[in-house]
Amino acid sequence: MVSRKQNTHPLHLTTLWREVLARQLGGLQINRLEKRSHSPTGATHISSAVACKKRRWFARLAIPIGNRISRLLGVRIDVLGDSAWHAREIRMHHALYEEEIGLTASGWLVVPWIADALSVTLAAPEISWQKKARGIQVSAKELRRLHDLACEHGRAFSHGDAGVRNIAFDDVSGEARWFDFEIQHRPEIPANWRHMDDLRAFVYSTLALIPEASFNGISLEIFQAYERSDSIRRLRGEVMSGRLSCEIFHLAQIQVPSAKRILMDEAVIEAASIFLAVS
Fold it and tell me: Which helix (DSSP H) or strand (DSSP E) does residue 102 occupy?
């Protein structure tokens, strides 16, 4: 089996402080999120159930500080400020799904409620494995579809935070929709790296919520649904290099014990190798 490089320093001090910082960043909740049965005043064109999202009071201070720290650490994303976030959210819903969303005078973004996030589906013990697997496959195909679009001011689309908590899957219609576009890859980052990073976030956030025995099979199913060999090959290279274990954003997104993360890495490498060998 091909394996990744690992940090062999006996004290692991660098790894330790990165893990601690990642837990703090990953646990910071800068938004309020509410599901409502109807639109609030100011978004009356949406008649169905809605998801409402608004920044918490401390976000205006936390976001620029967090972005500055991220740049110092080499993280290649930014959390958008209120105006830029609202504009991107509205623009992406229209460009990707021809969907109009609301923005109230008090700063609530109002989005039609399609279904629960895939993360909710994967974590629910009462939902069958068949439905969970279908949701994973459909979501991977939808990510591939969006990566083929050029809707970021003429640049290829990338999500920026493509974990399973940011895609809704409706098992009745079989539809999956990405949402929550407040984190953005920096515009100077090449599309091939941005697409790999979205794929990384989706694969690892999926594995974090399923049994370890399914890691290899589901990783391969995701790659088969996503199909793009360039992104899959690049992801395999990132994992094999050991760089992911030093990436603060990766550690903040995927908060699992280090032993489980190693199993994830091995599954991703093996599944990517199998996919690339036959593609």
Answer: strand 102-103
C-alpha span between 162 and 102 (Å, rounded): 22
pLDDT in tens, 206-246: 999 999 999 999 999 999 999 999 999 999 999 999 988 88
Those residues with Cβ within 8 angstroms of residue 220's Cβ, 6 or more apart along the chain or in another chain: 271, 274, 275
pTM exceeding the 0.85 threshold for the entire prediction? yes
Instruction: Answer yes or no: are the C-beta atoms of 174 and 212 closer than 8 Å.
Output: no
Distance of CA 114 to the CA centre of its chain: 18
pLDDT in tens, 63-78: 999 899 889 888 999 9
Specify the amino acid at residue 149. L
Return the residue matching tokens 């990707």: 96
Give the contacts of 172 (CB within 8 A, at least 6 positions apart): none
CA neighbor of 201 nearest in space, from 167, 233, 170: 167
Tokens of 213: 């025995």
H helix runs in the chain, sequence order: 13-26, 59-72, 82-97, 118-123, 129-147, 191-207, 215-226, 229-241, 248-253, 258-278
Burial of 103 (0-12, 13-18, 19+ CB in 10 A): middle
- Among residues 259, 274, 247, the alpha carbon closest in space to that of 73 is found at 247
Secondary structure of residue 208 in the 3-state scheme: coil
